[in-house]
From TrEMBL:
<dbReference type="GO" id="GO:0043874">
    <property type="term" value="F:acireductone synthase activity"/>
</dbReference>
<dbReference type="InterPro" id="IPR036412">
    <property type="entry name" value="HAD-like_sf"/>
</dbReference>
<dbReference type="GO" id="GO:0019509">
    <property type="term" value="P:L-methionine salvage from methylthioadenosine"/>
</dbReference>
<dbReference type="InterPro" id="IPR023943">
    <property type="entry name" value="Enolase-ppase_E1"/>
</dbReference>
<keyword id="KW-0486">Methionine biosynthesis</keyword>
<comment type="pathway">
    <text>Amino-acid biosynthesis; L-methionine biosynthesis via salvage pathway; L-methionine from S-methyl-5-thio-alpha-D-ribose 1-phosphate: step 3/6.</text>
</comment>
<comment type="subunit">
    <text>Monomer.</text>
</comment>
<dbReference type="GO" id="GO:0000287">
    <property type="term" value="F:magnesium ion binding"/>
</dbReference>
<keyword id="KW-0479">Metal-binding</keyword>
<keyword id="KW-0460">Magnesium</keyword>
<dbReference type="GO" id="GO:0043715">
    <property type="term" value="F:2,3-diketo-5-methylthiopentyl-1-phosphate enolase activity"/>
</dbReference>
<comment type="similarity">
    <text>Belongs to the HAD-like hydrolase superfamily. MasA/MtnC family.</text>
</comment>
<keyword id="KW-0378">Hydrolase</keyword>
<dbReference type="InterPro" id="IPR023214">
    <property type="entry name" value="HAD_sf"/>
</dbReference>
<dbReference type="GO" id="GO:0043716">
    <property type="term" value="F:2-hydroxy-3-keto-5-methylthiopentenyl-1-phosphate phosphatase activity"/>
</dbReference>
<protein>
    <recommendedName>
        <fullName>Enolase-phosphatase E1</fullName>
        <ecNumber>3.1.3.77</ecNumber>
    </recommendedName>
</protein>
<comment type="function">
    <text>Bifunctional enzyme that catalyzes the enolization of 2,3-diketo-5-methylthiopentyl-1-phosphate (DK-MTP-1-P) into the intermediate 2-hydroxy-3-keto-5-methylthiopentenyl-1-phosphate (HK-MTPenyl-1-P), which is then dephosphorylated to form the acireductone 1,2-dihydroxy-3-keto-5-methylthiopentene (DHK-MTPene).</text>
</comment>
Length: 234
């Protein structure tokens, strides 16, 4: 069955996990309190704080001040929680860092080369736990230049969790509407087997990208580099 669209993860797939773990996350943690306090009156920041409070209430907790909401957000960073308001705020903070030239997003050279090639004849999408804004900033400020024009669209946790079959069903439905592409003609790339399991459950084709140790067995096609992905053979 021919591939008519590609959806890719970021961390560990197109780019090093170390960049996000060792650069972006610490940067957001360091600047979160100062950023929220300085921009608390802005509607988008207010919305994030309200969403944080709502999530705390679902856990039987409540923050009585902005400082307590920030404390909760900092705890979520430490726990690597995939909470939408946290991801949105991180994206805002990272935007400032990118614009100030504090860092550039890491890209694997093989991923950049393949994405540039594929984009000439296939629609490319990103699905990451990072917010759409964070994804766009990442690719617009990569070490290989502005790669954002290569992509037709982006998905984040607002469409669903990355290990839920329903999330990939929603993605497939959107691509069907936009490009008349069936689920079986969509290829999803990730370094997380559970995400690929969910995508396969929705009928997508899958490839496990293992940058380091290759598993002895996998339910998915396995590569160590985008250069090993031959779309004609999928």
């Amino acid at each position: 069955m021919s591939i008519a669209a590609i959806v890719t993860d970021i961390e560990g797939t197109t780019s090093s996990i170390a960049f996000v773990k060792d650069v972006l996350f610490p940067y957001a943690r360091q600047h979160l309190r100062e950023f929220v306090c300085a921009h608390e009156a802005q509607p988008d920041v207010q919305q994030c704080l309200q969403q944080t409070q709502a999530l705390l209430l679902t856990e039987g907790r409540e923050a009585s001040s902005t400082d307590e909401l920030i404390d909760a957000l900092l705890c979520w960073i430490d726990e690597d929680r995939k909470a939408t308001p946290l991801k949105t705020l991180q994206g805002m903070i990272w935007q400032r860092g990118y614009q100030q030239g504090d860092y550039q997003a890491h890209m694997y050279a093989d991923a950049t080369a393949a994405l540039r090639d594929w984009s000439q004849h296939l629609p490319l999408y990103v699905y990451s736990s990072g917010s759409v804004q964070a994804q766009q900033l990442f690719f617009a400020h990569s070490c290989d230049g502005d790669l954002l024009p290569l992509f037709s669209g982006h998905f984040d946790t607002r469409i669903g969790a990355k290990q839920d079959v329903a999330s990939y069903q929603h993605i497939a439905a959107e691509l069907q509407n936009e490009h008349a592409v069936g689920a079986g003609n969509i290829l999803f790339l990730s370094d997380i087997e559970a995400e690929l399991d969910a995508a396969a459950g929705a009928g997508l084709q899958t490839v496990l990208v293992c940058r380091a140790d290759v598993p002895q067995t996998s339910r998915h096609r396995v590569v160590q580099s985008f250069a090993e992905i031959d779309l004609a053979l999928l």
